[in-house]
């Protein structure tokens, strides 16, 4: 670890979702190891749920109220209300914090902001503080948004469902492979957030954008935008799961509840590469019909499984509503939370049935676990395309003509991934290849490690 530089202090502000917080805390840890003091900030909606914040010299936390502080009860359709409140309260907090630090003679060298917080970059510009954008989704998705807001909006919105869109530097994409926000209303807050990001990228020639990916994973997507310097610094997961050198760094950033550990004991009792792991992230509530079809598919497979099923907003227990609950209890185990990276690293894992959020996707890649891809929305659709057709580490489930993914489809895809056929063998071989490349990227001379060091020395330290 480098000696902390007294004159190099950065402020990191992130959206208060676990999918944002986890990679940002890992990023913060890596900056500290390179000698950078970090103040990590997001709203109390996130901080009120965190049970194990890391205690590291050089890393401090500065939570602020977003007006709801974990008590927002609206649906995803009303989430713009939360975002507006988060932005208003966060702007006031950020200005006051920056002014206070400057008066104390210890100003922030730079503000780093993440996906969905473009307002931070705009505000930083208005108060003359340099900023850097940390994109926590794949470079391919950022490229799509960049094209969308630079002349391709009508083409993308009106593209035929049975055709493939050609965008320079990207794989052929059908409408079902595009992030769902590009089809949202032009006034949707998420789409406007992406527009803020693109406008900020366009406002500075050859701006350096940090991306939670690595060079070997997306070489074309990282380099295709000529006026934007996209730099792969990922995978942003705990170093213990990449190099094994720091056994204390095993928690994935911000665990949202205490770990009971019984699921690890259960996994320990299972044969090597035998267990199906199912998890759909921190945000997505799985529709009842989809849950039932997944459950029936697991019954058809007759394989052991570990399934993360979160309670509903009002304490509902979706597992209790399944018609095949008794059969499932004989086959596998359900939990309300688990340490996902730890589970993915377990030798009993055979495959991962996932919504393809980027954290889950890059964790599966870094763990060498093949995937059954069941994307629901946002970047997940594009991530599933990359998994199946570019990296070839999994298969994507297909819906029927009514838009329903049936139980037999889940059984089919699981059996392809874990079965003894040539396709399954190829997927498992590719998964191990990408695991090794992910680990290589984070070695001392690996691309992501070298890229991050260059950013720190050239941008933050000005050497």
Overall structural domain count = 2
- How many DSSP-defined strands? 13
* SSE ordering: EHEHEHEHEHHEHEHEHEHEHEHEHEHHH
Text of the CATH class of the largest domain: Alpha Beta
CATH-defined architecture of the largest domain: 3-Layer(aba) Sandwich
From the spread of the alpha carbons, the general shape counts as globular
How big a fraction of the residues is strand? 5-15%
Mean pLDDT over the residues: 92
Task: Please characterize this protein's 3D structure.
The chain has 463 residues and is an alpha/beta fold. The chain is 42% helix and 12% strand. It is built from 16 helices and 13 strands. It is globular, with a radius of gyration of 22 Å.
List strands and helices in order, with pairings.
Layout (H helix, E strand, L loop, with lengths): L8 E5 L4 H16 L3 E5 L2 H4 L11 E3 L17 H25 L6 E5 L3 H9 L4 E5 L3 H19 L31 H15 L3 E5 L7 H5 L4 E5 L29 H7 L6 E5 L8 H14 L3 E4 L16 H7 L1 E3 L4 H5 L4 E6 L3 H10 L3 E3 L6 H11 L3 E3 L10 H12 L3 H20 L5 H14 L3
Parallel strand pairs: 1-2, 1-4, 2-3, 4-5, 5-6, 6-7, 8-9, 8-11, 9-10, 11-12, 12-13
């Amino acid at each position: 670890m480098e000696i902390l530089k007294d004159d190099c202090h950065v402020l990191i502000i992130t959206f208060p979702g676990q999918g944002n917080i986890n990679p940002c805390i890992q990023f913060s840890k890596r900056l500290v190891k390179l000698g950078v003091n970090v103040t990590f900030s997001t709203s109390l909606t996130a901080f009120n749920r965190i049970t194990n914040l890391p205690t590291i010299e050089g890393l401090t936390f500065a939570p602020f109220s977003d007006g709801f502080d974990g008590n927002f009860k609206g649906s995803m359709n009303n989430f713009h209300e939360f975002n507006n409140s988060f932005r208003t309260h966060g702007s006031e907090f950020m200005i006051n914090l920056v002014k206070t630090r400057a008066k104390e003679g210890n100003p922030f060298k730079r503000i780093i902001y993440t996906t969905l917080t473009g307002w931070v970059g705009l505000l930083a510009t208005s108060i003359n503080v340099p900023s850097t954008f940390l994109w926590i989704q794949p470079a391919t998705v950022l490229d799509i948004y960049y094209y969308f807001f630079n002349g391709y909006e009508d083409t993308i919105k009106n593209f035929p469902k049975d055709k493939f869109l050609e965008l320079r530097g990207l794989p052929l994409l059908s409408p079902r492979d595009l992030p769902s926000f590009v089809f949202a209303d032009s006034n949707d807050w998420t789409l406007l957030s992406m527009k803020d990001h693109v406008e900020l990228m366009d406002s500075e020639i050859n701006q350096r954008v940090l991306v939670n990916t690595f060079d070997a994973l997306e070489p074309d997507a990282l380099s295709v935008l000529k006026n934007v310097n996209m730099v792969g610094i990922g995978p942003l997961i705990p170093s213990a799961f990449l190099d094994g050198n720091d056994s204390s760094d095993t928690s994935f950033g911000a665990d949202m509840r205490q770990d009971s550990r019984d699921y690890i004991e259960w996994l320990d009792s299972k044969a090597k590469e035998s267990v199906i792991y199912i998890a759909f992230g921190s945000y997505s509530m799985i529709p009842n019909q989809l849950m039932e079809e997944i459950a029936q598919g697991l019954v058809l497979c007759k394989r052991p499984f570990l399934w993360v099923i979160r309670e509903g907003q009002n304490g509902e227990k979706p597992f209790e509503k399944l018609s095949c609950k008794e059969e499932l209890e004989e086959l596998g185990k359900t939990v309300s939370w688990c340490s996902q990276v730890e589970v993915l690293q377990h030798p009993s894992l055979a495959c991962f049935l996932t919504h393809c959020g980027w954290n889950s996707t890059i964790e599966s890649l870094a763990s060498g676990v093949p995937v059954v891809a069941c994307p629901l929305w946002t970047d997940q659709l594009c991530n599933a395309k990359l998994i199946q057709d570019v990296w070839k580490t999994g298969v994507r489930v297909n819906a029927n003509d009514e838009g329903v993914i049936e139980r037999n489809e889940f059984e089919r895809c699981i059996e392809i991934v874990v079965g003894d056929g040539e396709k399954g063998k190829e997927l498992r071989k590719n998964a191990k290849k990408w695991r090794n490349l992910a680990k290589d990227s984070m070695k001392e001379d690996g691309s992501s490690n070298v890229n991050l060091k260059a950013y720190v020395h050239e941008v933050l330290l000005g050497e």
